[in-house]
Design brief:
The complex is a heterodimer of chains A (257) and B (51). Chain A has helices at residues 43-50, 72-78, 94-104, 109-122, 138-150, 168-183, 195-201, 219-226, 231-239, 244-256, and strands spanning 5-14, 17-27, 32-36, 58-63, 66-67, 79-82, 156-160, 187-191, 204-209, 212-217. Chain A has 257 residues and is of the alpha/beta class. In chain A, a hairpin with a 2-residue loop joins β4 (58-63) and β5. The radius of gyration of chain A is 19 Å and the shape is globular. Chain B is mainly α and 51 residues long. Chain B is 47% helix and 0% strand. The longest helix of chain B has 16 residues, at 13-28. The chains are: A alpha/beta (257), B mainly alpha (51). At the A-B interface, α2 and α3 of A face α2 of B.
Chain lengths: 257, 51
Amino acid sequence: MAASIHTENLSREYGGRLALTDLNLEVQPGEILGFLGPNAAGKSTTVKILVGMLKPSSGTARVAGFDVARDPLEVKRRIGYVPETAALYETLTAREYLALVASLHHQPRTTAQARIDELLERFDLSHARDQRLSEFSKGMKQKVLITAALMHGPEIVFLDEPLTGLDANAALVVKELIRGLAAQGRTIFFCSHVLEVVERVCTRIVIIDRGRAIADGTAADIAARTGTASLESAFVSLTGQRDAAQVTQDLINALSR
Amino acid sequence: MAERNLSWLGIDRIQWQALVVAYLRMDGRRAGGASRPGRDRAITCLPPTAA
């Protein structure tokens, strides 16, 4: 079976500084890949390259069988993307915004309207569908973004901190949705700092630090390899440059002065 | 000619029409554009268009 995502020596440089170095990654259909790393590790850079928003400095990336640098539009037709920080057209209503997204995906108007209404209802947003997005709370906007990313039935879904702003009920729906999409054979590329969620939802985890992949396996594999009891401890052991307790004490001391 | 220009932008006629309608609607509401500075970045949530 062809990989959904395949990268070979993928690298990206910003003004002489390497943000991503020789990333080799293969993700199969149906996998839920948790992509973790400390701040500025290169996660967002990787995602932006894979969704065709950023060109790699060297190396190659294929998504859904297409080279992201040569065929970015073919890639975009087959993916859904929930960015970490997104701008919405806030003077449009939720329905208008989603109808725009549907048109950009060439979905017939009647099918799209039915789908929009159904998804908004599932996300408990029916009552607000004709309200402008500027009147939406952060969590409501996040639900609209997730809906927009999934409306066209993408083969591969990139989620960058998708649970941000969602209440516990909505977060639970999204987590179940992720599992359901994977069960249909769709690939999920999941970036998050919430390790408990990643541990529970993802079938495989890749950790990157300073632009390099440093661990790849299930949460249990990674914990075992680092001799720790949980993914959180393994993450700290692999990426922590300073002892967290010491950092906390230093901060308290600094604030007390 | 128009088709060639649109192709250069990475969109087709249907996508162009959808964007024009949305922008006219937003302008009609006197605010328009994205919710933060750098309104061109808003398009990044609206695949599939040019990179």
